[in-house]
Amino acid sequence: YIIEMVAIVASNGKQLDPYLIVEDADGKKLAEDDDSGGDLNAKIVFRAPADGLYRIVCTTFNPSETGGYTLSVRRQPAVKEKK
Prior knowledge:
Elements: E1 2-7, E2 18-24, E3 29-33, E4 42-45, E5 54-60, E6 69-74
Antiparallel strand pairs: 1-4, 1-6, 2-3, 2-5
């Protein structure tokens, strides 16, 4: 899965610094991204280790930060194996 959290720039020019975390059903952190390579958006490419319940935590890098964002989760296309 490709999980992306993209900050929306407010009319005052401010935007939050997204921070994504993927946890398993027991709350164990499996993946995280707070800046997606230097910009202010977060992106995780996640391959679930097994069928089950997973939690996506959408927060910010800076404490008490608020603002708008979009969250998208999409299936990554399957890669065909070479014979």
